[in-house]
Design a protein that fits this description.
Elements (H helix, E strand, L loop, with lengths): L7 E6 L4 E8 L3 H13 L1 H4 L2 H17 L1 H12 L3 H24 L5 E4 L12 E7 L3 E4 L13 H9 L3 E4 L5 H17 L7 E4 L2 H9 L5 E5 L2 H13 L6 E4 L5 E4 L1 H20 L11 E5 L2 H15 L9 H15 L5 E4 L2 E2 L5 E2 L1 E6 H6 L15 E7 L2 H8 L5 E7 L2 H5 L6 H12 E6 L37 E7 L20 E3 L2 E3 L2
Helix pairs in contact: 1-8, 3-5, 3-7, 4-5, 4-7, 5-6, 10-11
Length: 517
């Protein structure tokens, strides 16, 4: 019997397109199975909330301690630069510690107790409800965030906080970084008395498919393309026992600039737009991809400022040459549409780089022939945006009505519109339209930059995401839990979280009232 040859996994320098080192080999079905079974076996150890909080904090400490090595490895594979990656590492370790704090507090368990009350109609039995972990979680790492949305990122941190071991499918754009940080997470597990199987790592496209189909995987988290995410989402739903699939797939992140806002601060908005579109060489999932700017002199001033700022942006390196080719082809196809102009032409900036730019098109083109201009309403990954020149409220509403779901929607309003004193009620109406489109609405700011906070929501209507949950902030823990209610259960058999007297000091709702100790 002939054994298939191992498929090597290479670390590649995107600045040159050359291989750096052989990092690993693609996981076989048997190796995926072993990683999942190790994660499944680690579940009882993660049931201890104190232990998993300690794991998250130790992981953060180890990542900080190895920061120089981690940043060097990530920069070599992504060309994102030490400055950007230093900030991303800080965000990653902050998120791990925030999840640890949430584990200590225990509010995510959503403990509710209703004592028996025979006087009610119908009589109420004793009911006690809390949330328990689903089981091993498959995490699919993102290309554009080698730390914050990859091996040690939000999906992993929140799953571990919930008590779920993880098996991460590494992204091929940063395999060496993935191996390095996975080793740190496993060391954190060992240092806190937990089995190293709480965090597994596999490489390869086939491994990713095997992972989502594995019968012991209880849920999945994904950040990536619509095509790849939808294929995995469908596979998760097609299993004999379907599982939750929390996918962030793609987003256009529309921006609306009203005529009054352009009149007030055209130059400021133009410069801010350029900075947001070109940040990280346009490789943020919340990059503004479609911007509605009014026709007329004020809109022209905005475009003049945008042109100047984008023209001053140096050519940059994308995460890999496949993405570079897709960017160049995507820009070319959009620029060839009738009526589309390129005040600053985006595209190839050199053998390995791309130049930033933007396209413009009259709103009437999109509205008169939506099918012909459908490409302009799809995300183009890289430093480019489409500026749609609108003629007022009706045109703005009609364009927004054509858009799919988004992670964000941004409104630039005048002082009067923002204060709610505009006679047309424009601010409130636009806010309602944006709310229907997106999971986060930004007013007089820019969507790039997603704060890690309890009130944050990073998700949105499909195809922005495949669920209503957030992938950023401690609320993300809720994705990996399910509620269980116990009825008339003898006190000695109840989980400690549900016993009278609140022995664990958890925030709880008891007979409709909040109990904190």
């Amino acid at each position: 019997m002939t054994t298939a040859a191992a498929v090597p996994v290479w670390s590649v320098d995107p600045r040159t397109g050359k291989r750096r080192e052989r990092v690993a080999v693609e996981a076989t079905a048997a190796e995926v199975d072993a990683a999942v079974r190790a994660a499944h076996a680690a579940r009882p150890a993660l049931a201890d909330r104190t232990a998993r909080a300690a794991l998250l904090r130790r992981a953060a400490d180890l990542l900080d301690g190895a920061g120089a090595r981690v940043i060097e490895a990530a920069d070599a594979e992504t060309a994102l630069g030490p400055g950007r990656l230093t900030g991303e590492l800080a965000r990653t370790t902050y998120q791990l510690r925030a999840c640890a704090d949430a584990v200590d507090e225990g509010a995510f368990l959503d403990v509710r107790i209703d004592h028996a009350d025979p006087s009610l109609t119908p009589p109420r039995p004793d009911l006690r409800r809390h949330k328990i972990p689903l089981g091993p979680v498959a995490v699919y790492a993102a290309s554009n965030f080698p730390l914050a949305f990859s091996v040690p990122g939000g999906d992993t941190a929140s799953a571990l906080a919930a008590g779920c071991p993880v098996v991460v499918k590494a992204h091929p754009d940063h395999p060496a970084t993935s191996e390095l940080v996975a080793a740190l997470l496993r060391r954190a597990a060992a240092d806190t008395g937990l089995p190293e199987g709480v965090v597994g790592l596999v490489h390869g496209f086939g491994a990713g498919v095997e992972l989502v189909r594995h019968p012991l995987i209880a849920a999945a988290g994904f950040t990536g393309s619509v095509r790849g995410g939808r294929a995995l989402f469908d596979a998760a739903a097609a299993r004999p026992h379907p599982i939750p699939f929390h996918g962030e797939l793609g987003s256009l992140n529309p921006v609306v600039v009203t005529a009054a806002a352009a009149a007030e601060r055209a130059e400021e908005i133009g410069a801010g737009l350029a900075a947001s579109v070109t940040l990280g060489t346009g490789q943020f999932c919340v990059k503004p991809g479609l911007v509605l700017v009014p026709e007329g002199p004020d809109g022209d001033r905005l475009l003049t400022a945008l042109t100047a700022a984008v023209s001053d942006t140096e050519a940059g390196v994308l995460l890999d040459h496949r993405m570079r080719d897709a960017f160049i082809d995507g820009v070319r196809a959009r620029a060839q549409l009738p009526g589309v102009e390129t005040p600053v032409t985006p595209g190839a900036g050199g053998e390995h780089t791309v130049g930033a730019g933007f396209l413009t098109v009259p709103a009437a083109r999109l509205l008169d022939d939506p099918d012909a201009y459908a490409l302009l309403l799809e995300e183009c990954f890289g430093p480019v945006t489409v500026v749609v020149r609108h003629t007022g409220d009706d045109a703005v509403g009609a364009v927004l009505a054509q858009l799919p779901g988004n992670l964000t929607a941004t409104l630039h309003l005048s002082a009067e519109e923002g204060a709610g004193t505009d006679p047309a009620g424009r601010g409130a109406r636009l806010l309602a339209e944006a709310t229907a489109l997106a999971g986060r609405v930004v007013v007089n700011g820019w969507p790039t930059g997603v704060a890690v906070a309890p009130a944050q929501h990073h998700g949105g209507p499909y195809p922005a995401s495949t669920s209503t949950a957030t992938s950023v902030g401690v609320t993300a823990i809720e994705r990996w839990l399910r509620p269980v209610a116990y009825q008339d259960t003898p006190p000695a058999l109840l989980p400690p979280e549900l016993r009278d007297g609140n022995p664990l000091g958890l925030p709880r709702r008891v007979d409709g009232r909040t109990e904190r100790s």
